[in-house]
Amino acid sequence: MKDFTPEYIDHLRHIIEERNDDEARKALAELHPADIAELCDDLDVDEAEYLFKLLSEEAQADVLMELDEDDRQKLLSKMDAEDIAKQLEHLDTDDAVDIIQEMDADEREKILSHIDDVEQAGDIIDLLKYDEDTAGGLMGTEMIVVNENWSMPETIKEMRMQAEDMDEVYYVYVVDNEERLKGTLPLKKLITHPNVSKIKHVMETDPASVKVDTPIEDVALDFEKYDLVAMPVVDQIGRLLGRITVDDVMDKVRDLSERDYQLASGLSGDVESDDKLFAQTKARLPWLLIGMVGGLCNSFILGKFEGGFVVDPALALFIPLIGGTGGNVGTQSSAIVVQGLANGSLDIKKSGRQLIKELGVGLINGCIIALLVFLYNWITIGQGHQVTTLAVSISLFCVVMFASVFGTFVPLTLEKLKIDPALATGPFISITNDIIGMLIYMSISTWLILTLH
Amino acid sequence: MKDFTPEYIDHLRHIIEERNDDEARKALAELHPADIAELCDDLDVDEAEYLFKLLSEEAQADVLMELDEDDRQKLLSKMDAEDIAKQLEHLDTDDAVDIIQEMDADEREKILSHIDDVEQAGDIIDLLKYDEDTAGGLMGTEMIVVNENWSMPETIKEMRMQAEDMDEVYYVYVVDNEERLKGTLPLKKLITHPNVSKIKHVMETDPASVKVDTPIEDVALDFEKYDLVAMPVVDQIGRLLGRITVDDVMDKVRDLSERDYQLASGLSGDVESDDKLFAQTKARLPWLLIGMVGGLCNSFILGKFEGGFVVDPALALFIPLIGGTGGNVGTQSSAIVVQGLANGSLDIKKSGRQLIKELGVGLINGCIIALLVFLYNWITIGQGHQVTTLAVSISLFCVVMFASVFGTFVPLTLEKLKIDPALATGPFISITNDIIGMLIYMSISTWLILTLH
Q1: Residue B296 and residue A260: Cβ atoms within 8 Å?
Q2: In chain B, at which end, N or C, are there fewer CB atoms within 10 A of the end residue's CB?
Q3: A190 vs B191: CB contact, 8 Å cut-off?
Q4: CB distance B376–A425 less than 8 Å?
Q5: pLDDT digits (tens, 9 = 90+) for B80-102
Q6: What is the pLDDT of residues B198-236, one digit of tens each?
C-alpha cells in the first residue's frame, strides 16, 4: 500500500500548478490506478481533473472505478457523455454497471447511446435490470466459454480470441449445446492435458454456481466456504449468464460487516471518518434523538414512581447500574445472533434452541452479578437499606434475564420477517432495555419497599 | 450453499448406524469437502469419524482444513501421527501450517517426522517461524516460479512440471538469477504470446508484493485495493519467499471485522452462537463485571452528591438520559475512528483534523439535543424546577462534547501506541462516559442548585 506523504502531495501540487505535463505523466506512470484514485481524493477537483486528463483512456477507466462515489461524481460532472462512454468501454460490464447505476435515467441513456460496442452496451442494459443485492447485480459477462465437445487445441484457439478483451482469466466455463453450464476447465489443464480430444473428459464437473436471484449475502458465504476466485451465475434452468469475481465479493463482505458494525454503533447511512461535518451529523443525530426520547421516557417513568424515592432516596443511586447492565447484556445477545446469521453459523430454524441457551447464559450471568452487587451493597450501605439492597439485586437479576431473551428474540424475529436483523442491535436494544429495565427496577423496588417497610 | 435438512441428517445417521459403507460413500461423493465439514459439525464425533475414514486421503485433508478448530481437534485425537502426516502432505503448506500450529510441540515434531516429502516438511518448519499476524504467517510456498530469461516454450515445459503438485494456478511469478521477484506472467499470455523468446518481454513488471513482516491488516487492504487473487511475499531485499491467496485473506477480513464487532458489542474472545453455554458465559461475563463495577462507581458518585437531590429530587429523573446520551455519542465517535482505521480511510497522521471535526459534530448535536430537552422540560416540569431544567441541558451539552472528544481520542491514542484501537469501543467507552458524564451532571447541577436557589 502506497502511503503518500504530505511532502509528496505538495510536490505534486506544485507540478500541477505549473502545468508541467511531462513531470506529471512521469509521476502517474509509477502509480497503480488504485493509488491514483487515492491521490485524487487528496487533491482538489481541478487538480484531479488535470491529472486524469493526462491518463490513457484505459487508465482513466480504471481510476474512475477505484474512486469514491462522490469523487467520481465530481470528476464525471466535468466530462461529456461521449468521453464517459469511451472510458466505460474499457471496463468489465459489472464495473461499468456499477458506475452507470449512480446516474439518473437521462444521463444513462445518453452515455449508453455513445458506447460503440453494441454487444457491450446490450450486456450493460441487461445487467441493469437485476436487483443490486443479488448475484445478478454483481455479475459481469466477461468470461471465456467453451463447448464441452471441443478438443483442447480448438478450445485454446477459441480462448485466445475471447481472451483478447479480458483483463485476466481464471476459469474457463464449459457449456453444452444448450448453453447450460456443465463444468469448469482449470487453466492448469491447458498445460497438463494439451491434446485431449474432448474438453468434457478433463473438465471438472458439478461446478459451484449460483442462481441469478441469490442474495449477495449467500453468494459471499459460498465464496468463503468453497474458496473461490470466481463463480458462474446461471438462470433457473442452468444456462450460464455471467460470472462474479472475488474482488467484488470481498468488497461486499467488507461493506456488509461495516454496515452491521455501524448499526451496532448507532450510525445510520454509510458514514466514513472522512465525510464532511454535515454528513456526519446527519448519520449520527437520528440515533441520538431516539436515545433522547428514550431518556425522557425514563425520566417520565421515574417520576411516576416517586413514592419509592421518598421512602428510600438511595434507590436513585442504582439507576445507572440497572440501565447499564441491561444495555450490555442485550447488546451481547443481539450481537451474537446478528453475527451468527451473517456468517452462517446460526440457522434460523434453530431459534428455539438459541433462546433456551440464552436463558441459560442469562441465568448464570444474572445470578453472579446480582450476588456480587448484593454483597457489595450489604457491606457498604446494608445498614438501614436492607430492603433496597434486596430490591436492587432481585431487579438486576430480572433485568439480565429480560435483556438476554429480548436481545435474542428481536433479531431472530426480524430475520423471520425478512428484515435485516442488524437493525435490532445498537441503540435500539440498549434504549428499550433501559426503559423496560427501569420499569422492572422501579416496580419491584417500590413494591418491596412499600410492602416490607 | 448446501442446506442440510434434519431429514437428510437423520437419513445419514441411519446409514452410519448400519455401517452401510456403499450408501455412505455414495452420499459423500456428492458433497464438496466444505459441505462434508459442515456435516461433521452436525454429527457426533464417532459418526464423523466413520464418514471421515471412508474418504480418500486427499479428501480427508480437504475436509480437515475446512473443519472448525474444535471439531478438527476431536477428529485428530482419534488418529495417529502417521495418518495425520499423510493427510497434511495433500495440503498446501500454508494450510498444513494452520493445522500444525494448533498442536503442542511434541505432537508437531512427531507429525513432521512422518512427512515423507522432505521439501514440504522443510517448508512447513520454515513457515512456522513467522508471526501468525504477518504476511509470513499467511503465506504458502506452492507457486510457479520461472526465470525472466526463459523462452515461453521453456517456461511452459517448466510450468507443466511445477503445476503437477498444485491445486490451482492463477499467477506465474518471474524472478531474476538472484531469485528476486521481477514480474508476473498472467496466464492469458500463455495463450496470447505462445512463442516469445524471453519471458521478461511479456511479463508485467512492478508486481504488487508484500514484505514478509507486513501486518495482515495491511495485506488485506492491499488485496482489496488492487483487486488481487494472490500476492507474492518477498524478503527485505526482494527475494521471493511465497504467496498469499485471496481465500485466506477473505477469511481474515471476516475474522478481523467480526472481532471489531465483538469488541464493540462487549464480547471477549471469539464467541459464536453455536458455542457451548460455558464458553458463551466466559466470553460475556468479563464485560458485564466491568459494567457492574462502573455502575457501582456511579452509585458511589451519586451518593457523594446527595446534597443536590435533597434540594430537588427531580434531578434523579434525568440520570438515565445523561448516561445514555453520553454512551451513545461516545460509541458513535469511537466506531467511526475504529472503522476508518480498519478500512484505511482514516490516516493516523490526520488525528488532529479528526478531533477538530468531532468537536464540530459534538457542538451541533449537543446544541440540538440540549435545546430539545430544555424545551421539553420547560413545558412539562419547568414550573418550580427552573434551575434543574437549566442544569440538565447545560450538563447534557457538556457530556456530549466530552463524549465526542473522548470517543475519538482513545482509539486514536491506542493506535498510536500500536494497541488494537477496537479495544476502545463498546462497554469501555460507554462505562467511562457514564461515570464521567455522571460526575459532570452532578457537579454542574449541584453547583447551580446550591448557588441559584
Answers
A1: no
A2: C
A3: yes
A4: no
A5: 888 899 888 888 899 999 899 88
A6: 999 999 888 889 999 999 888 988 888 888 888 999 999
Chain A residues lying within 8 Å of B361, measured CB to CB: 277, 280-281, 284
Q: What is the pLDDT of residue A355?
A: 86
A7 touches chain B (CB under 8 A): no
Residue A17 has pLDDT above 80, yes or no: yes
* Contact flag A339-B226 (C-beta cutoff 8 Å): no
The CA distance from B107 to the nearest CA of chain A, in Å, is 28
pTM for the full predicted model? 0.78
Distances in Å between the alpha carbon of B375 and those of A296, B254, B380? 12, 45, 9
Domain ranges of chain B: 6-137, 144-245, 277-452
Q: Which chain A residues in 35-54 lie under 8 Å from chain B, judged by CB atoms?
A: none
AA identity, residue A110: K
Domain B144-245 of CATH type 1.10.10.10: no
Cell, residue A275: 465525510
For residue B382, is pLDDT > 80?
no
Q: CB of B205 within 8 Å of any CB in chain A?
A: no
* Structure confidence at residue A453 (pLDDT): 64
Among the CATH numbers 1.10.620.20, 1.10.10.10, 1.10.357.20, 3.30.379.10, which is that of A277-452? Answer: 1.10.357.20
Q: What is the DSSP string of A335-388?
A: HHHHHHHHHT-S-GGGHHHHHHHHHHHHHHHHHHHHHHHHHHHHHHT-TT-HHH
Is residue A393 within 8 Å of A377, Cβ to Cβ?
yes
Pick the closest to residue A232 from A170, A320, A290 (CA basis).
Answer: A170
- Domain B6-137 is found in CATH 3.10.20.70: no
pLDDT value at residue B374 = 94
CA dihedral sign of residues B11, B13, B18, B20: positive
CB contact under 8 Å between A339 and B260, yes or no, is no
Kindly report, residue by residue over A206-250, the tens digit of the pLDDT: 888 999 999 988 898 888 888 888 899 999 999 999 999 988 888
Rounded distance between C-alpha atoms, residue B264 and residue B275, angstroms = 19
- pLDDT band of A150, cuts 50, 70, 90: very high
- Averaged confidence pLDDT in chain B: 87
Contact at CB, B324 and A323, closer than 8 angstroms: yes
Residue A92 and residue A244: Cα distance in Å, rounded?
A: 11
Lowest-pLDDT range of A271-285, A377-391, B108-122: A271-285
Quote the Cα angle for A327-A332-A333, to 5°: 100
